[in-house]
């Protein structure tokens, strides 16, 4: 009899190569055919079992350990950092007719399946926002705020759908920062909605402005999304960034989890960090990757996620 | 029908540069879906009939007759068995044809009749007894083959190498529990046999305690379900298995007995198991170090039962810069490290006492009292109290007793490897 090492269920047969109950590899002769070889010793993917190399034992990176995505004008990177065993952060980005959308969520690691909550919430907010922004009047602040509230509401629905088995640790929950940067006749307008302590910054050559205010009491987040969340109406901040103020140099909307900003928790420090990381580089993918690298190299105490929108057309 | 389950207890966190991973693996056999058909059981009882068994007014040889008969009564129908009489040679006492016989009403009655006629005479050559058992059990490699070996004396009528060779030739063929009657036998001699043959050694201080001991041993064998279980360890390339020890119910070092399965996988024979049995193992593995944030599998723990391999547990190493994580010592690992130290200080203390070094003996046995007291080894504390007067168990302050019964000293020696499991609160 073969028993799955991951979930303890009995395999369908002794020849089974994967667990029908949880999907874990049972280490039969078949590995992920053509999958990546070991990151340390290069052993064939056939030898990788339960996520560990069968030759050198090295744990192989999980699919969520480090993710990056880049679209035209917007990019995001997430990394599990050095201390946590799972990455419960998530991002979702999109491009709309008038600009860009970036959503960042930080799953609360003391709860189960928070990665499902954070990814579900980010995707739902992005999808709703991309839909609602189509054809919207960027000058109509009330409509923009309504679209942002609706997007966070969709995110809440997704986070609350995550399965919860009573285990004393509370249901899956997540923070959210949902941001859009939209072109106006004389520059850009940012629309940011949030719950929790993930942040958005406007960074240009003249100034760095934190657009969000942490929902935090005594070091713990006071608002979040999930099954046990209270009121999930987001705080919404709308700001204009006229083109005539800083035509030169880089202009970015930055959205991040506390895995980044705890290494630069004042606007001055963040300004310096972005200046150091970006150099003359205004490519959002390069900047996001560089900021995440900085957080990991500084200690990687938490999952870290950065989304960057480049204000340029 | 038997299944196995296992739990790993370890602190997987290491500081950068750290290479040594300690883990305690608890394995339990329980009745469930089978890993293999229940094996046949074969029991061979080797009873000492040397001349010294006539001492003490014949009470020893009478106890041997009664105890062996009691053991025969415990054999259930269908179990194969034989009784061997051992002195300077091994003689088939029952069945007379020198093969094992199936237990039923008739064979049990015939065997008991043969046992009732045992007379004591001659010398002691324990190697020849093992060779006698091996002849009976050579064709039962896949069975649960068990030998009870009783002696009241030392191996005086053959050369030491003859015993060593007989032990080596018996490894893998049968398991052997050794019992020494009285105080004129050698603990190390019997322990050498039982260690190699995956059994236990214990003292039977008085003849009237023999019947209960024989009955208990036979009952334990009747409860066995699965033969030839192996603790299978995969360890990564570049790693070393520093040790593999059984740490409960008794300390047994298994490190030197691996059978290679492939370049990275080894089997450590555990012998046969019965439902409900739990044994704990302490493994220490040295692995190639990793960078902060790296995680490596230090061992994949499996059980090999016949052709079936059951994955039971993963032992991991994770490198961190957080000293709060890396310096934490796992409770189970700490407990069994203490139990191993306890056995060591008892052995050292008794050796010092025998050598006339009372100062060292006092320190070592005092430390033993302290460790046994802390860990809750109540039985060991009682055994120690027959050798030392305890002033304060917390500090290990003791005085050597002037008058110590030989059997008490031997009991402490032979039972020093008995451990207690981690006490769980509430």
Overview of this structure, please?
The complex is a heterodimer of chains A (313) and B (426). Chain A is α+β, with helices and mostly antiparallel strands. Chain A has two domains: 1-60, no CATH class; 66-310, PPM-type phosphatase domain (Phosphatase 2c, domain 1, 4-Layer Sandwich), CATH 3.60.40.10. Chain A is built from five helices and 17 strands. Chain A has helices spanning 114-133, 141-160, 258-261, 267-278, 284-297; strands at residues 48-49, 52-53, 66-71, 74-79, 89-96, 99-106, 173-174, 176-184, 187-195, 199-204, 208-210, 216-217, 220-221, 225-226, 235-242, 251-256, 304-310. In chain A, strands 3-4-17-16-10-11 form a six-stranded antiparallel sheet. In chain A, strands 5-6-8-9-15 form a five-stranded antiparallel sheet, with helices on one face. In chain A, strands 1-2 form a two-stranded antiparallel ribbon. In chain A, helix 1 (114-133) runs antiparallel to helix 2 (141-160) and helix 4 packs across helix 5. The longest helix of chain A is centred in the middle third of the chain and has 20 residues, at 114-133. Chain A starts with 47 loop residues before the first strand and ends with a strand. With 426 residues, chain B is an alpha+beta fold. Chain B has three domains: 2-37 and 227-330, Immunoglobulin-like, CATH 2.60.40; 41-224, von Willebrand factor, type A domain (Rossmann fold); 332-415, Up-down Bundle (Four Helix Bundle (Hemerythrin (Met), subunit A)), CATH 1.20.120.1690. In chain B, 32% of the residues lie in helices and 33% in strands. Chain B contains eleven helices and 20 strands. In chain B, strands 4, 5, 6, 7, 8, 9 and 10 form a seven-stranded mixed sheet that branches. In chain B, helix 1 (59-74) runs parallel beside helix 6. Chain B is globular. The model of chain B has no long low-confidence stretch (mean pLDDT 94).
């Amino acid at each position: 009899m073969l028993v799955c090492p991951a979930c303890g269920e009995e395999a369908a047969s002794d020849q089974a190569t994967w667990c029908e109950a949880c999907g874990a590899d049972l280490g039969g002769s078949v590995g992920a055919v053509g999958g990546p070889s070991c990151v340390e010793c290069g052993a064939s993917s056939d030898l990788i079992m339960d996520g560990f190399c069968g030759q050198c034992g090295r744990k192989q990176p999980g699919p969520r350990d480090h993710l990056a995505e880049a679209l035209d004008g917007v990019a995001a990177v997430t990394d599990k950092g050095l201390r946590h065993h799972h990455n419960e952060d998530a991002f979702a980005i999109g491009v709309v007719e008038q600009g860009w959308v970036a959503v960042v969520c930080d799953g609360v690691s003391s709860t189960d399946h928070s990665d499902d909550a954070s990814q579900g919430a980010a995707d739902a907010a992005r999808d709703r926002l991309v839909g609602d922004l189509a054809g919207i009047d960027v000058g109509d602040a009330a409509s923009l705020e309504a679209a942002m509230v609706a997007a966070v509401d969709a995110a809440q629905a997704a986070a609350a759908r995550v399965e919860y088995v009573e285990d004393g640790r509370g249901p899956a929950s997540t923070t959210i920062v949902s941001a859009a940067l939209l072109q106006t006749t004389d520059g850009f307008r940012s629309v940011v909605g949030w719950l929790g302590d993930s942040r958005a910054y406007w960074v240009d050559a003249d100034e760095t402005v934190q657009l969000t205010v942490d929902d935090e009491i005594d070091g713990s987040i006071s608002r979040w999304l999930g099954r046990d969340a209270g009121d999930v109406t987001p705080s919404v901040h709308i700001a204009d960034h006229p083109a005539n103020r800083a035509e030169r140099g880089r202009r970015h909307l930055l959205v991040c989890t506390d895995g980044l900003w705890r290494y630069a928790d004042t606007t001055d420090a963040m300004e310096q960090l972005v200046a150091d990381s970006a150099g003359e580089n205004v490519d959002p993918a390069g900047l996001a990757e560089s900021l995440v690298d900085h957080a990991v190299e500084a200690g990687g105490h938490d999952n870290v996620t950065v989304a960057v929108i480049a204000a340029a057309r | 029908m038997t299944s196995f389950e296992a739990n790993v207890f370890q602190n997987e966190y290491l500081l950068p540069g750290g290479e040594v991973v300690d883990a305690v693996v608890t394995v339990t056999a329980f009745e469930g879906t089978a890993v293999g058909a229940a094996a046949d059981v074969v029991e061979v009882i080797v009873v000492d009939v040397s001349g010294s068994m006539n001492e003490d007014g014949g009470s020893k040889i009478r106890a041997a007759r009664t105890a062996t008969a009691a053991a025969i009564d415990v054999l259930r129908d269908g179990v194969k068995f034989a009784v061997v009489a051992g002195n300077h040679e091994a003689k088939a006492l029952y069945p007379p044809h020198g093969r094992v016989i199936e237990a039923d009403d008739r064979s049990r009655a015939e065997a008991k009749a043969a046992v009732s006629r045992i007379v004591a005479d001659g010398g002691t050559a324990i190697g020849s007894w093992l060779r006698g058992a091996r002849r009976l059990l050579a064709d039962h490699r896949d069975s649960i083959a068990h030998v009870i070996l009783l002696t009241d004396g030392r191996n005086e009528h053959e050369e030491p190498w003859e015993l060593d060779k007989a032990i080596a030739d018996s490894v893998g063929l049968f398991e052997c529990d050794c019992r020494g009657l009285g105080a004129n036998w050698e603990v190390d001699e019997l322990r050498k046999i039982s260690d190699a043959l995956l059994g236990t050694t214990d003292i039977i201080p008085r003849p009237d305690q023999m019947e209960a001991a024989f009955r208990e041993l036979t009952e334990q064998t009747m409860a066995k379900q699965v033969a030839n279980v192996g603790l299978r360890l995969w360890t990564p390339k570049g790693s070393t298995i520093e040790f593999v020890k059984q740490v409960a119910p008794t300390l047994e070092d298994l490190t030197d007995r691996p059978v290679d399965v492939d370049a990275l996988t080894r089997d450590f024979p555990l012998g046969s198991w019965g439902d409900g049995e739990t044994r704990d193992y302490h493994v220490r593995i040295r692995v190639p170090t990793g960078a902060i944030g790296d995680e490596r599998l230090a061992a994949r723990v499996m059980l090999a039962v016949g052709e079936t391999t059951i994955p039971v547990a993963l032992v991991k190493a994770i490198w961190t810069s957080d000293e709060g994580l890396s310096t934490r010592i796992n409770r189970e690992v700490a407990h069994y490290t203490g139990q191993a130290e306890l056995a060591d200080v008892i052995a050292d203390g008794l050796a010092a006492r025998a050598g006339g070094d009372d100062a060292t003996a006092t320190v070592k046995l005092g430390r033993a009292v302290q460790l046994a007291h802390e860990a809750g080894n109540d039985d060991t504390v009682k055994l120690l109290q027959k050798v030392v007067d305890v002033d304060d168990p917390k500090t290990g302050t003791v005085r050597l007793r002037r008058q110590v019964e030989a059997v008490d000293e031997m009991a402490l020696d032979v039972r020093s490897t008995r451990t207690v499991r981690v006490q769980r609160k509430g």
